[in-house]
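TICKET #2291
ISSUE: user wants both folds in one file
ATTACHMENT 1:
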Amino acid sequence: MNFTGRSAIVTGAGQGIGLEICKQLVKLGANVLLNDLDSILAEKAVTEIRAETKNGTCRFLSGDAASQPFIQQMVDTVVAEFGNLDIVVANAGITLFGDFFTYSPDSFFRVMEVNLGGTFFLAQAAANQMKIQGSGGSLLFMSSVTGHQAHKDLAAYGMSKAAIEMLAKNLVIELSPFSITVNTIAPGATLTERTLQNPAYQTIWEKLTPMGRPASVADIANAALFLVSENARHITGQTLIVDGGWTSISPSPY
């Protein structure tokens, strides 16, 4: 795959899956705007990427990926700096665990604001720019296996992820006439800085995953790059589950 001359936005990319997607895009020649709410994480991530590759370009813009004015700022920044917007990866999201019987409205609406609102309005702003350009583009949303299988204490989160997948399917109607593809990835258990804060996480998911290990961030990024590449120009409205087979048998970590 070659992304030379193509420009991308990746949200929630200060670490983990988003950072790895940015790294791979830049290594393959893309110009990338890396977003994270945490400006320190974002700056550190861009410094790391620049040290590893000289192929593409990467800069950061910190801010809340659920804010509509900031979303438009990201789109405008990419166009001003790189000339066009070709790829958007709506990776930003939050997980707020909580018992259904006591789950607070504040937690519920924040999950919906970031996971659903951030994805919807980023797709809207990006698609409007791609329509103006007239050369098509690729949108990629980040779902989760919890949008397919029930998981304790994640009712709101799982609901938001299932909705993201339906959004991608629905947008096929709106975006196909403009040669814009829209797909979703649903990662399973993945080793990231956040999940590894639990010392037992890797051991638990090694036992529960049919392939014998949780995903690495590279496993998810590899799938992401395929779906936003020219190799996937006839794939749209689809969700690709990357979980080592977990959803086939769905054993609970509890």
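ATTACHMENT 2:
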Amino acid sequence: MPKLDWLTRSEDEKVSAHVPYRLLEAVPEHSYGDPRSENMLIQGDNLDALKALLPFYAGRVKCIFIDPPYNTRSAFEHYDDNLEHTQWLGMMYPRLELLRDLLTEQGTIWVTIDDNEAHYLKVVMDEVFGRKNFVANVIWRKNYSPKSSARHFSVDHDHVLVYAADADGWVPNPMPRTEKQDKAYKNPDNDPRGPWKPSDLSARNFYSVGRYPITTPKGRIISGPPGGNYWRVSEENFKRMDSEQRIWWGKTGESIPQIKRFLSEVKQGITPQTYWSYEEVGHTQEAKQEILALFEKDVFITPKPEKLTQRIIQIASVPGEIVLDSFLGSGTTAAVAHKMGRRYIGIEMGEHAITHCVPRLKKVVDGEQGGVSEAVGWKGGGGFHFYKLGSPVFDEEGRINPSVRFPHLAAHVWFAETRTPLAHPRRRSPLLGVHEGVGYYLLFNGILGDKRPDGGNVLTRRLLAELPAHDGPKVIYGESSRLSKESLLQLGITFKQTPYDVKAR
């Protein structure tokens, strides 16, 4: 497959692999609401934050929605959007790689972008996610009136590029029917089956058994449908439908027959379409009004309306699943996900993670009624935990940071070995888990309550007898081993020494 090239591509391809794993440090004073909540708000560079999340959330995120800087050659107050094209691609590429690794097998990623970089982004995402996993380019009409000051065209839309981790296996949630769609169904003949609407009986193309005359209830013979030669059903099926009163002859009983389509028999969900009007999902002015209502000033130039985010989350996830936004901005994705009963992870680098995102989410927890609150029946509740990026797990020489505690290193070791997140990251047990028949153990920070050389961090026969049992091959990490190579081989143990055998990146 052809690849997009840019000046620093060879270096940018290596960035995500060399980003150090960092600690996520809880900041209780900025957390709010139910302490049992799993929702996360992270302050820090999203490249570092995404790497820090991998040991805990790789393959677990159902929906990713990001609104990255558009590279429009204009400096925003909270974003340096004036990035040269090469820098913009270099910024996006490693982040997309890490986002890909966080998606579940049934997950999708949605990226809003405008024409400045949309087509380049499409090619890069074809590479990262696989061209076969491209789902759609949704067009969002973001303006409700043309810009008369435009030099050439009034640009009224943005793109939303949609990719799936596995497009063959992904099925979007159907969109709920709207009141406008249901209004098309009437019941002029008081049919006990309820409202219905007429549907054309003529066939567009050749239908071998669709040529026959029809006699109306008043005796008029109709040789065929107007403007065509074929009915869309056979004569046998037509007579059956007429006997079931599924044919509408008009109020006079002389009209061209039509099929009655009952609302009660219509699929309640509709297939998502690729054009989204501002009437359906909001526009930029609506988004600014939402921000003004929350913060009493226009602090973001290009916010997205809550209704746009609602539709994406609605199509891509169900309550309880994880939604992630690594360019959180004003906090819209986290706010809407919270109202819709999803778990969420929001990442924002600037100080406004504290000055804007935290206050907004606190208002949501308290039952804020702006945006989509009424539409989704939001009344308040839940909570979130605030984190900041801490020190790297390893120093520049590859040694384990002294501030690292057992749960952090356990999650890192498990992910490095299995490429999956640790199922119980807070459980303090030397047996991290079993993956494909292999038991993985970590002896660190005196996990067994004994830091003496013949105790908790060093593998001895005495300690081995105290470890949780696993009937199969074992991989054990520890400071050192007092067992011979022959004994380890006989016992089915692969010993790895910390910190040297722990993958630093």
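RESOLUTION: both attachments delivered.
EXTRA DETAIL ON ATTACHMENT 2: The mean pLDDT is 89.
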